[in-house]
Every structure is written in structure tokens, then in C-alpha cells.
Amino acid sequence: MAVRPVIATVVAAIAFGSMALAQGGRPLSPAGSSATQVGGKYDTSGAEPVYRNGKWIEITYGRPIRRGRNLFGGSGADYGKTVNPDAPVWRAGANESTQLKTEAPLVINGKTIAPGTYTMFIDLKPNNWTLIVSTWPAQKDFNPDDKTAVFGAYGYTPAKDVVRAPMKLDVLPHSHDQLSWEFLDVTDAGGTIALIWEKTMASVAFKVAP
After folding, report:
1. What is the per-residue pLDDT across 117-144, written as a single tens digit (0 to 9) for each?
2. How far from the centroid of its chain's Cα atoms is residue 42's Cα?
3. What are phi and psi of 158, to 5 degrees?
4. Which H/E stretch holds residue 4?
5. Comparing C-alpha atoms, which of 14, 26, 55, 60 is closest to residue 180?
6. Tens of pLDDT, residues 64-122
7. CA 97 to chain CA centroid, nearest Å
8. What is the DSSP code string of 154-209?
């Protein structure tokens, strides 16, 4: 009798995953990325200035569209079920797991993250969001038999958490129809990582470690 939950998980993964297509064959949640570079300098010795030796920080993710939904409604255990109906935590995007790829060591909530590739999730609670940076590898396609990697947030456990950080929540004066990850107020010393969707902005500060 354990077949039904497995089937439900597979159906949910497909419904919110890379196989889901809108009319016209376009993906319901197109792929997105946001990137910045830190630590480089402009070389002005040539005819055109060239930025050299910068280190990339990039977030890759699926970009769901609101489509009229009340995204972060509900209370208690039902909070956030519109965007995350059945995974342990929210993938903070769509399709594959959201990934942070950094060439620079970063400090988030007092913990240093070494250069590398990580998955990112958000633990959703009313007025209390927590950013999770994890070493769980990301599956390209959903495979429930692969217990060594996760698709979205299916199969996630906190065993591979690198850092958990409380997120600052702000209400925006206008609504963003499509989910976006952004880098804000960036300098060589650090900046802010922010998720923006509908009228909510959830953000975490980061520093660039020496």
C-alpha cells in the first residue's frame, strides 16, 4: 500500500518540475540566473577597460510565475503550501534545486562557505523564513530511487546543511509576477542575496571572506 504516496510524489514532481509545459510548449517556469563578480579590478591600460580577476557568485533557479495565486497564504502548518505543497522545505524556485555557485568564500550568518556549488532552500514559517545552504547534490531529472541527490527539495534532510540563516522579510510597494533571485548593494566586501516574488522580499546579508 506504499505505492500511492510514491505515485503522488512523482506526480507532484512532474507537475512542478521541468517536464511541465504551458500552452505553446514553453516551460511553466523558465530557467533563470543571477550573478555578480567581486574582487576584480578594471585594467585601463588598453583601448577598452577590462575587468580582470573577478570571482563569480551565481544563483541558478527556475522562475515560476504567480498566475493569480495567493503565494504565501495560510497559517500554521498550512502556511506556504501554495508554493511548497509536500516537500520538507521549499526549493525557492521551480524545477531543479536552486543552486549557489561561488568562486569566492562567503560568510553567511557567521559561517564561512568555501568556494563550490551548493543547493539552497527556504524553510517557510509565518513571518519567519530561514535560508538553508546545503551540500546536497541536485538531480537534473527526478529519480526517486537516487538517495544521493535531491530534485527540487524532495528527499531533502538537514544532514548536509552548511548554514541556516534567518531572512529579513520586507513588503514591497508593487507586485513581482515572476520569482527572482537578486544580488543587492554589492561591494567587494559583500552584499545581500534576495528572493523577490509577489510583494515579498526575503533577504540575507553576506560577506566576502579574505
Report:
1. 999 999 999 999 999 999 999 999 999 9
2. 30
3. -75, 5
4. helix 3-15
5. 60
6. 999 999 999 988 889 999 999 999 999 999 999 999 999 999 999 999 999 999 999 99
7. 7
8. BT--GGGEEEEEEPEEEEEEEEEEEEEEEEEEEETTEEEEEEEEEEEEEEEEEEE-
